[in-house]
């Protein structure tokens, strides 16, 4: 094998470096877990729950490392054993034409990746999550979710993939722009219509019933000038014992969604506090901002794709015998790994900033902001959330600040 070009060397180095960094972050986090819990934590987390939280965090970290290490090893074996050119020759023998061959080649590799990931997802759901009392999904629900996801990939992802291949086959130097526009439209489509069209395929959404809770929520929404339409409960308890809430969609498609487990375990002031945090994301324009960041990120990726698509050196690095349309797409996906090593922590920092801002909004608009602190403490306990992760692990992995950090920031806001 001849020497690799800068493209292949960069991808290989990024793949290995990403795994090593993940492993380092896990080790640092385990060191942080070995320290005694802060006194203020033990004021609301009992010793048995703390031990269970540490055990859960360690089990999840081990599974993540095993899964990511296995995927890396499988990719490297496939790469250096000549898997990419072998599949190219196989698909070429089917005589499907340029676009047909490209779509089948990319589709088969993406399907193989999904199938390879399933044992880890099965273990996570039915062994790890079940061991710690979270999993409530039946095998039927689990398989049904995967089947629906696969069909959605075919219905939505298939035409998108064919469009991308068409652009780069026929549109020359402007192909990246067509791809960027199409991908950005897809992101916006998902933001607007996913709550209406896609999410109900997996969960049941029910308008929040009339009663004291709805009245309290409506009163708060009226206070901050937000429409009270679009408040739903979701049957999250069908799959997990976790509690959560989120805002999704834009404009008249916006939905404020509360897990049924949240309503079962929290008082009315606490649920309103969760609502206030989620409304903060809406009022502060976080969803459009994140969408804009995603579109900008897609622009950079589009430019990279245009560079990767017809690079003989990149194809050579992956042992391909010819430059192909489908090879360009797959190698572009791998070429994105180095970029994600840089972009990932930045995007997570933006997300953490938004979480702090939503907490400040909630604390400044709630009549009882202490309820938000009480809610976070209860969420940490019920979800076995690690309260003292290592700061570098937070930078590398966390889109939300650790709950203890959020509590301290809210208390500073309350005491101002």
Walk me through what this model shows.
There is one protein chain. Helices cover 73% and strands 4% of the residues. The chain has 416 residues and is mainly alpha-helical. A four-stranded mixed beta sheet has the order 1-2-4-3. α1 packs parallel to α13 (325-365) and α5 packs across α13.
Q: Which tags fit this structure?
A:
416 residues; 4% strand; 4-stranded mixed sheet; Zincin-like; globular; 2 domains; 16 helices; single chain; mainly alpha
Summarize the entry for a quick read.
By secondary structure, this protein is mainly alpha-helical.
Spatial order of the strands forming the largest sheet: 1-2-4-3
Mean pLDDT: 88
Structural class of the secondary structure composition?
mainly alpha
Order of helices and strands, N to C? HHHHHHHEHEEEHHHHHHHH
Question: Count the helices. How many?
Answer: 16
The main pleated sheet reads as: 4 strands, mixed
Q: How many distinct beta strands?
A: 4
| Overall 3D shape | globular
Output the radius of gyration: 24 Å
What is the domain tally?
2
> Helical content, roughly?
over 70%
Distance between the termini: 65 Å
Secondary structure layout:
Blueprint: H1 6-33, H2 39-42, H3 47-80, H4 83-93, H5 97-131, H6 139-170, H7 175-198, E1 205-207, H8 212-224, E2 231-234, E3 245-248, E4 255-259, H9 260-265, H10 268-283, H11 286-308, H12 312-317, H13 325-365, H14 370-382, H15 391-397, H16 403-414
Parallel strand pairs: 2-4
Antiparallel strand pairs: 1-2, 3-4
């Amino acid at each position: 094998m001849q020497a690799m070009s800068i493209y292949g060397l960069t991808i290989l180095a990024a793949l290995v470096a990403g795994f090593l960094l993940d492993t380092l972050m896990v080790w640092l986090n385990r060191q942080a877990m070995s320290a005694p819990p802060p006194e203020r934590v033990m004021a609301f987390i009992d010793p048995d729950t703390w031990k269970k939280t540490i055990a859960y965090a360690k089990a999840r970290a081990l599974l993540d490392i095993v899964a990511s290490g296995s995927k890396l090893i499988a990719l490297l074996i496939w790469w250096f054993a000549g898997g990419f050119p072998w599949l190219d020759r196989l698909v070429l023998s089917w005589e499907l034409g340029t676009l047909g061959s490209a779509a089948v080649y990319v589709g088969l590799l993406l399907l193989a990746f999904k199938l390879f990931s399933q044992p880890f997802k099965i273990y996570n759901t039915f062994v790890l999550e079940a061991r710690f009392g979270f999993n409530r999904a039946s095998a039927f629900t689990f398989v049904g979710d995967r089947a629906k996801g696969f069909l959605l990939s075919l219905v939505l992802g298939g035409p998108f993939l064919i469009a991308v291949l068409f652009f780069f086959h026929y549109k020359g130097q402007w192909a990246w722009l067509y791809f960027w526009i199409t991908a950005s439209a897809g992101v916006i489509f998902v933001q607007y219509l996913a709550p209406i069209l896609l999410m109900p395929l997996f969960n049941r959404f029910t308008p929040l019933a009339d009663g004291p809770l709805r009245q309290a929520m409506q009163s708060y929404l009226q206070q901050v000038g937000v429409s009270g339409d679009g408040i739903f409960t979701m049957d999250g308890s069908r799959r997990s014992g976790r509690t959560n809430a989120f805002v999704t969609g834009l404009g008249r498609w916006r939905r404020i969604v509360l897990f049924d487990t949240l309503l079962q375990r929290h008082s009315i002031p606490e649920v309103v506090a969760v609502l206030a945090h989620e409304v903060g994301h809406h009022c502060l324009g976080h969803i459009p901002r994140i969408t804009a960041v995603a579109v900008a990120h897609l622009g950079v990726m589009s430019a990279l794709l245009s560079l990767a698509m017809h690079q003989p050196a990149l194809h050579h690095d992956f042992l391909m015998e010819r430059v192909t349309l489908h090879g360009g797409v797959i190698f572009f996906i791998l070429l994105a790994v180095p970029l994600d090593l840089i972009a990932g922590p930045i995007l997570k920092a933006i997300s953490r900033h938004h979480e702090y801002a939503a907490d400040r909004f909630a604390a400044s608009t709630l009549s009882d902001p202490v309820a938000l602190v009480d809610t976070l403490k209860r969420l940490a306990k019920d979800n076995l959330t690690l309260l003292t992760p290592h700061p570098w692990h937070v930078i590398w992995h966390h889109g939300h600040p650790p709950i203890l950090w959020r509590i301290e920031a809210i208390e500073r806001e309350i005491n101002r």
